[in-house]
Design goal:
Order of helices and strands: HHHHEEHHHHHHH
Number of helices: 11
Family: Belongs to the binding-protein-dependent transport system permease family. LivHM subfamily.
Low-confidence stretches: none
Number of domains: 1
Distance between the termini: 42 Å
Main location: membrane
Keywords: Amino-acid transport, Cell membrane, Membrane, Transmembrane, Transmembrane helix, Transport
InterPro entries: ABC_transp_permease (IPR001851), BCAA_transport_permease (IPR052157)
Membrane topology: Multi-pass membrane protein
Helix content: over 70%
Mean pLDDT: 89
Shape: globular
Number of strands: 2
């Protein structure tokens, strides 16, 4: 029983990181109808930038977090303005290929600037152990769970009660009609890309703090994608919550079935889900697949 609880606890922690990245995928898709397959690479780049800023300022935790937020917003806006906005009106497949190419470019830039060596991100108290119900968890694991819950709550409030959130929902439903009603589609999409970038950046940063900072962080996008499909490509909150489910499921499979199956457990799960609910557990039935 204790072993199972340990698997569940650690699964919730890694699942929270998956959830943040999955929300990033869903946020972009909800506003633009486009999957950004450079999401993992973007999270990796933001983690490196924030680590460099923090190191230059004396390993300050606030500098690390502030650098991640600032760099993610700037990168998200720049990508939307100078790359993705040029793809408006182009075939969806072409736009998706642009994001794939963008991911390759980001990886190359990271390797050229920072190299491929593993780095340690030192954050005060992050490695401290907290004992809860007889189980040990690191502060960084608790922090990422809290951040995911906060992100889910803020997203709910944003989409349900804010005027801009309602405008984003309108654009997601029908961009042409929303534009005719006076909603700035380009502004909505810019905010969506910036928000998506922030979520991806937080996921990459928490992964770097909890494990290591290396170019392998880009695989976080691939490992988080099952949570997006499970929750629904257009369901931001559902995708975030599904990240925890995928994380726990992976840990249980790795702990009780076979460690090698842990890496593919999430993808096996979505194969089953897609056969039963092709639109995801929380997605809309009429969404268009890429």
């Amino acid at each position: 029983m204790r072993y199972t609880l340990e698997l569940v606890y650690s699964g919730v922690a890694i699942g929270a990181i998956y959830g943040l990245m999955a929300m990033a995928f869903a946020m972009t898709y909800k506003a633009t109808g486009l999957l950004n397959f450079a999401q993992g690479e973007l999270g990796m780049l933001i983690a490196y930038i924030s680590w460099s800023i923090s190191t230059a300022l004396g390993s300050s935790t606030w500098a690390l977090v502030g650098g991640a937020l600032l760099s993610s917003i700037v990168l998200g806006l720049l990508i939307e303005r100078f790359i993705m906005r040029k793809m408006i009106g182009q075939p969806v497949f072409s736009a998706v290929l642009v994001t794939v190419g963008l991911g390759v470019i980001i990886t190359s830039v990271v390797l050229m600037i920072w190299g491929g060596e593993q780095q340690r991100v030192d954050v005060q108290y992050a490695s401290d152990i907290v004992v809860f119900a007889g189980l040990r968890m690191r502060v960084s694991q608790i922090a990422v769970i809290v951040v995911l819950l906060l992100a889910l709550a803020l997203t709910h409030v944003f989409f349900r009660y804010s005027r801009f959130g309602i405008a984003m929902r309108a654009v997601a439903a029908d961009a042409r009609t929303a534009s005719l009603m006076g909603i700035s589609v380009s502004r909505v999409q810019a905010v969506a890309w910036a928000t998506s970038s922030v979520l991806a950046g937080l996921a990459g940063l928490f992964f770097a703090v909890s494990f290591e900072l290396s170019p392998s962080i880009f695989t976080l996008g691939l490992k988080s994608f099952p949570a997006t499909v499970f929750g629904g490509l257009d369901a931001v909150i559902g995708s975030g919550a599904s990240g925890i489910f995928i994380g726990v499921f992976e840990n249980l499979v790795g702990g009780y079935v076979a460690p090698l199956l842990k890496e593919i457990a999430g993808f096996l799960m979505i194969l089953v889900i897609l056969m039963v609910r092709p639109f995801g557990m929380f997605g809309q039935k009429d969404i268009e697949r890429v």
